[in-house]
Amino acid sequence: GAVVSQHPSRVICKSGTSVKIECRSLDFQATTMFWYRQFPKQSLMLMATSNEGSKATYEQGVEKDKFLINHASLTLSTLTVTSAHPEDSSFYICSALLPGSSDTQYFGPGTRLTVL
Amino acid sequence: SQQGEEDPQALSIQEGENATMNCSYKTSINNLQWYRQNSGRGLVHLILIRSNEREKHSGRLRVTLDTSKKSSSLLITASRAADTASYFCATDLTGGGNKLTFGTGTQLKVEL
């Protein structure tokens, strides 16, 4: 089956630092990936759509300068949380759209970010 | 506003019983998908049902879709302790470019 990985799985950083999270499709090429965040005991909220070779599309209320997305290749998208603050602490999950799969998204295992 | 509302928010049943979760949505969809999430983990895709489909089965899972009522249900038959997880519906809106809008989720606990 289609596998999506994320790295790191867990990161703790100091306030004011930047953190990069990688999302990789391991056995397929994904022109489109998505980034979500999830607060404890809540649902997933879409942050942005990452398209290979073009700028990401951000959802309303998501600061593009705060959450930098780069989809440099057909198997890798990165999310960089810049100048992180404690309120950015969350569970970040990516997904990749499997081409020809009837619109199925495959999700990574998530990254737990804690900002001290 | 929340596209997908699920009920119940939490459900506790005994192993062997059936579990039914419901999802309602507000706007026109291409498809509706159900996912499972174990605590602190990523999401596992369970089933996708298209807007022109009414029912779909996969193993012990049965999903129905009623586009006139804008609602879907997920039935897990003969539940097992390993089914304990949160279950989310997600809608792929018409013209939404494959973006998914997730429901509020149902926390299912299956007790031995």
Low-confidence blocks of residues of chain B: none
Largest sheet of chain A: 7 strands, mixed
Number of strands of chain B: 11
Number of strands of chain A: 11
Query: Looking at the chains present, what oligomeric state does this protein adopt?
Result: heterodimer
On the 0 to 100 scale, the average pLDDT of chain A is 92
Q: Provide the structure class of chain A.
A: mainly beta
Sheet-strand content of chain B, in percent, reads over 45%
Shape category of chain A: globular
Helix and strand pattern of chain B: EEEEEEEEEEE
Radius of gyration of chain A, whole Å: 13 Å
Structural class based on helices, strands and sheet pairing of chain B: mainly beta
Q: What proportion of the residues of chain B is helical, as a percent range?
A: under 10%
H/E series of chain A: EEEEEEEEEEE
Gross morphology of chain B is globular
Distance between the termini of chain B: 38 Å
**Radius of gyration of chain B using CA atoms only:** 13 Å
| Helix share, percent of chain A | under 10%
Q: Span between N and C termini of chain A?
A: 37 Å
* SS field, number of helical segments of chain B: 0
